[in-house]
Amino acid sequence: MKYLEVRHLRLSQVKAVDIPALFNQNNIPYNSIDVINWHAFPYCPKVEFAIAHTGDTILLHYRVEEDGVRAVAGEDLGNVWEDSCCEFFASPDADGSYYNLESNCIGTILLCNGKGREERMQAPLSALKKIDRWASLGRKVIGLDEKAHQWELSLVIPVSAFFRHKISNLSGLIIHGNFYKCGDKTAHPHFLSWNPIDIPSPDFHRPDFFGEIKFL
Q1: Which long-range contacts (CB under 8 A, 24 or more apart) does 169-173 make?
Q2: Residues contacting 178, CB < 8 A, separation 6+
Q3: Within a domain: 16
Q4: Residue 131 within any structural domain of the chain
Q5: In CATH, what number is assigned to the domain containing residue 55?
Q6: How many C-beta neighbours within 10 Å does residue 123 have?
Q7: Per the database record, which ranges form the Carbohydrate-binding domain (predicted)?
Q8: Which residues have a Cβ under 8 Å from the Cβ of 175 and sit 6 or more positions away?
Q9: Residue 28 within a domain
Q10: For labeling, which of 85, 88, 184, 198 is most exposed (least CB within 10 Å)?
Q11: What pLDDT does residue 124 have?
């Protein structure tokens, strides 16, 4: 199981568009999402993420290089996993439930909570609206573009986004989670993870393969 420490940046307000420069100024390290768990899907775009927090928000930045992009889902709670998509799954306590926060390359978000793949509760729109997003490709639907792209995505995720838990301060919190890159209907379907998933068929909804994440 991989282990990740999340630094505390003592800032009152951060906008998603400012995260890349902020992380550069503060030397926030990047981590690769490069584990090919299922060799039937060997394509491996270059993907890395960096994460920090401000106490009451999670700051997340993805950097991706891939051979073509897909962005069809333009409304939150849509099928973003079919697009060029980065995902953060997180289980904040021992109750057995976890959140799947999935975002395509234009910042469209799917956020749900539950104890398994078939038991998901969608986030209320009020919670989704509080997640600030910046996408280097813009926020408009692209469709399928088979040209090579380098793209970035930044998210500012308030603790209130964990809508079935009451988290007031992230400092000192230890959670379990995983980070993914997928694209079910892209020109090159792929299913990459940060922490390995040792099962025969593609499935990201496996909290038994989450890594440990400590918020400093």
Answers
A1: 169/55, 169/56, 170/6, 170/8, 170/53, 170/55, 170/56, 170/58, 170/215, 171/8, 171/53, 171/55, 171/215, 171/216, 172/215, 172/216, 173/92, 173/214, 173/215
A2: 88, 89, 193, 194, 195, 197, 204, 209, 210, 211
A3: yes
A4: yes
A5: 2.60.40.1190
A6: 24
A7: 19-215
A8: 90, 91, 92, 93, 212, 213, 215
A9: yes
A10: 198
A11: 97
Q: Are 10 and 54 in contact (CB under 8 A)?
A: yes
Which mean pLDDT values do the consecutive 10-residue runs of the chain (216 residues) have? 97 96 98 97 98 98 98 98 98 94 98 94 97 98 96 98 96 98 97 97 96 98
What's the Cα-to-Cα distance from 28 to each of 20, 23, 40, 111, rounded to whole Å? 10, 5, 34, 25
Domain count, the chain: 1
Domain that holds residue 25: 3-199+209-215
Within 13 A of 23's CA, how many CA atoms are on the CB side? Answer: 25
pLDDT at position 119 is 84
Within a domain: residue 204? Answer: no
Residue 13 CB contacts under 8 Å (≥ 6 apart), including other chains: none
Quote the tokens at residue 140.
Answer: 């408009």
Q: Which of 126, 73, 120, 71 is nearest to 99 (CA)?
A: 120
Return d(Cα 24, Cα 202) in angstroms, integer.
34
User: What token pair was written down for 15?
Assistant: 């906008």
d(CA 204, CA 104): 16
Cα distance between residue 93 and residue 159, in whole Å: 14
